[in-house]
Amino acid sequence: MPRGMRIAALREFVSGGRRRYPWLLATTSILVAALLLVPLVAIVAQALQAGWGQVWLVLDRSFVATLLWNTIKLAVVVTILCAVIGTGCAWLTERTSLPGRRTWAVLLIVPFVIPDFVLAWTWTSVFPAIHGYSGAVLVMTLHLYPLVYLPMAAAFRAADPGQVEAARVLGLSKRAAWLRISLRQARTTLLGGCLLVCLALLSYYGAFENLRYQTFTTAIFGEIRTQFSPAVASSLSLVLVALSLFILGGEGMFRERGRVQRSGAMAQRAQTPIQLGRTRFLAVAGVATTVGLALGFPVAVVVYWMTTGSSSGLPTSVSFWAAMGYTALYSALGAVLATALALPVSLLTIRHPRRWTATLERSTFITQAIPGVVIGLALVYVVSRHLNFLYQSPQLLVIAYALMFFPLGLVALSSSVARASPRLEEIGRSLGKGPLAVRLTVTAPLLAPGLAAAFCFLFLSSVTELTATLLLAPTGVRTLATQFWAYAEESASLGAAAPYAAAMIAMSAVPAYLLGRWFDQRIVGEPGGSWFQEEVP
Amino acid sequence: MSQVQIACRGVSKSFGRVPVLLDLDLEVPIGAVVTLLGESGSGKTTLLRLIAGFERPDTGTIVIGDETVDSDQLYVPPEKRRIGYVSQEGNLFPHLTVAKNVTFGLARGDRSADRVGELLELVGMKDLGERYPHQLSGGQQQRVALARALAPHPQVVLLDEPFSSLDASLRSSLRFEVMQILRQRDATTVFVTHDQQEALSVADLVGIVDRGRIRQFDKPEVLYNRPADPRAARFLGEANIIAGTATSGFIDTAFGRLSLADEQASLEGPAIVLVRPEQVSVRPPVDEGSTHAHSTGRVVHCEYYGHDSVVLVELAEGGPTLRVRCVGPTLVAVGDLVDLVMTGNFRAWPDDPMSRGDDDLHP
Fold first, then answer.
1. What CATH number does residue A44 fall under?
2. What does R_g of chain A's alpha carbons equal in angstroms?
3. Which end of chain B is less packed: N or C, by CB atoms within 10 Å?
4. Is A3 contained in some domain?
């Protein structure tokens, strides 16, 4: 390129010329995406530093094979159980005349709010015999079935009765239409939900530690806590992350495929629920058992230990309130940071849909595949080598929360960002308002619900975060989760642990309720409010 | 003061590598209602968005009133252009009530209840001020969008297919109402549409936008009767384009000898001629003695519309066909032999690729 042209091009680039390009948005988004990849890069770097020879040595041991087998046999059984329970409950609440179905629909989601390590503790504290493989299957199933239930309920609700009718007109019997249309369409949703279950299973630590069941996370954590060998920790992490990425890739594939089957924003008719008749008592019993075991039992145990437990002198109220304050503070800061990071990425990908922006957005979801223990390990590695002043600082913990849960914020923001269309800004401008005024009076109010939803999602997740917090919390600082964990490890202080469990459940229940309502609206669609989302492309 | 309200000169715009507008010129007189007719993708909406200031042209200038609003040197943002804009979807602010939508463009002091009432009454929505957009029907939403656009008394109103998402009967009645309102206010109006009837019926001037240029810009009746080229002819109404040979004010075609319009008396040699379906009539075949040009053919297809019907007449087995509009009760049926009678003067062009504007000669 001749020099003159290059200068002209540069000037065009800097001033924007007659063409406006969202340089600021694009640059910010790329930086955010790069930041999110830091943990992954750090783990690889740490392994490289230890040397591949060392890594192979670790991977070659039968120990890794045991961990793999433990993970696989747990994942298979838990996934099948979650698929059965989640699908069954979703079908009962969405498609049948189950008595009290709207109440059951909410109660079936709530167990996900109870942290995995609290749920495990409630079972082991009452029945010390529950541990190992069977204990892990029980606890993980009760904790994770909502990951299948939620998408399946959405799929059943969104199913277009017109498609089944079309199949009937084409000569299919009622049963054949159900098999070939309804079930076939739900299949991709089900598989997507199952993969989410696997992904979550890989990332948990607390419950497995409590149940004395060895998995990759417990092995990595043990390595960090005892004889720390970077080679062992990072090579185990690499295997874990590779497994997670594999599952995440599969999940993404199913989500893409599931999307095709949506039949557009056509007017939807209500479906007539299937009358259960006499079997409804059986149905209620099934749903009630699920809710009872997953929600009723842990809540009852927490209440029981709080009232009768030997809390003699252990938790001073000062330390309790301090833990609560730290938890709220760090979680809120992490949620604000993640929302702030997610907003430019969301704006860029929705307002400037290009191939590269879509790729950028997808790359941020890789964080989902990196378990908390690995994020913690990676961040410790990075700051100890390059940013020593951040080690064990509150800032680092807040950053860790933001990195871990970033994708949740992005998902929560998307519908609001789509709603705050640039078309509306243009109309505002044509009516005589300047760019700033339009942003304040049009864009901001439309973004607000999404920002609030993102905050709730992120806050809820951070409050119950245990693994990364154990590794990164500033010295002397205990959050609800880590304090609970400290007490839960001693069997003598069951009563002392209980209030922390209760506080975590309470603190995450409020956002969970808001979130549930938001989610509910999203499936149903705002009544009549769909017209501006139906913009002709 | 100039008589021109909006002037676009040499305006080009491309999106990425796709050119949308190519060196386009347009002048809209003060107070005129102008429709821009074009197929989807022709660039008509882009032109409107450039005039509004939502996008900037790559080259060219745009002048509104006496003020240059876009050129190489300067750019006036939309909020300083005093325009009203109504889009296809209405784009009401979903978080504001109807009343707040309508007063959005007004200064705080002007937002009195009286003013809101007045504006809503103008569009026939008097009692619905407290509703939210999602509680309104599509037609009501477009009424509110119009009231909102008119509230700050814009000098120019831009309408981007405002009725295309409504059903047919509502569309024509709302169009009639809206045009009355706009004419009362003497607002210069640019109205983009892909509907020929809409373009012809509401406008003082119609511009045909085609492949990034204005192909022809004139009064509706001129456009219909004296289109610039066959492609423009097909944009407005149904058109038979027939090949023939021109000699001293006449053209000889397979359907007989047709007389040309006066200004085309000089046309000689191979030519193509426009025959509108209503310029032809059919009658039972007679032997001879007719003073009009005529030929005989067989009816091969019949479309009944109530107020009239259109028949397709084939001159000979596998030969050229002609669409004919028959007013009143049809007496012909498929298979009948009929005489074709063509009356009036016809518009013709030399038969070369330049004037055809495209490849296919006959519909």
1. 1.10.3720.10
2. 25
3. N
4. no
H helices of A261-296, in order, are 280-291
Do residues A366 and A245 lie in contact, with contact meaning Cβ atoms separated by under 8 Å? yes
User: Closest to A430 (Cβ–Cβ): which among B83, B94, B133?
Assistant: B83
Structure tokens at A348: 């860029």
Tens digit of each residue's pLDDT (9 = 90 or more) over A241-294: 888 888 888 777 776 665 544 444 444 556 677 777 788 888 889 899 999 998
* Residue A230 lies inside a defined structural domain of this protein: yes
Flag if A19 and B58 touch (Cβ within 8 Å).
yes
Tell whether A277 is within 8 A of chain B (Cβ).
no
Q: List the alpha helices (DSSP H) in A204-279.
A: 206-211, 216-225, 230-260
Helix (H, G, I), strand (E, B) or coil at B355: helix
- Quick check: A533 and A265 in contact, CB under 8 A? yes
pTM over 0.80: no
- Residue A433 domain-assigned? yes
Contact call for residues A486 and A121 (beta carbons, < 8 A): no
CA separation for the pair B347, B244 (Å, rounded): 12
**Subunit contact A431:B54, Cβ cutoff 8 A:** no
Looking at the structure of chain A, the number of domains it has is 1
Residues in B closer than 8 angstroms to A530, CB to CB, are 134
Residue carrying the six token digits 């979903």:
B94
CA–CA dist A488, A495 (Å, integer): 9
* Dihedral sign computed on CA atoms, order B153, B154, B157, B162: negative
Phi and psi torsions of A13, nearest 5°? -65, -45
* Cβ–Cβ gap B149/A421 under 8 Å: no
Cβ-count burial of B257 within 10 angstroms (0-12 exposed, 13-18 middle, 19+ buried)?
middle
Q: Taking CB atoms and an 8 Å cutoff, what residues of chain A touch B85?
A: 426-427, 430
Express each pLDDT in A440-469 by its tens digit: 999 998 888 888 888 888 888 888 888 888
Q: CA-CA distance, A255 to A196, in Å (whole number)?
A: 11
Q: What residue numbers bound the domain in which A474 lies?
A: 23-258+278-521
Is-contact B283 B338, C-beta < 8 A? yes
Q: Which residues of A212-233 are buried (b: 16+ CB within 10 A; e: fewer)?
A: ebbbbbbbbbebbeeeeebbbb
Tens of pLDDT along A380-418?
A: 888 888 787 778 888 899 999 999 989 888 888 888 888
CB neighbour list of residue B179: distance below 8 Å, 6 or more residues apart: B33, B202
Give the three-class secondary structure for A315: coil
Which residues of chain B from 65 to 94 reach within 8 Å of chain A, CB to CB?
A: 72, 75, 77-85, 87-89, 91-94
Residue A120 falls within a domain, yes or no? yes
B162, B86 in Cβ contact below 8 A?
yes
Residue showing tokens 């386009």? B24
A531:B141 CB<8 A: yes
Structure tokens at A251: 């999940």
In chain B, DSSP finds a helix count (H) and a strand count (E) of 9, 20
Helix (H) or strand (E) holding A351: helix A317-351
Cα A372 to the center of its chain, rounded Å: 12
Q: Where are the alpha helices (DSSP H) in B78-189?
A: 98-102, 113-122, 138-150, 168-184
Contacts of A103 (CB under 8 A, 6+ apart): none
Beta pairing partners, B326: B309
ipTM of the complex: 0.79
| Among B222, B143, B208, B217, CA closest to B182 | B143
Quick check: B133 pLDDT over 80? yes
How long, in residues, is chain B? 363
Task: Check: CB of residue A131 under 8 Å from CB of residue A157.
Answer: no
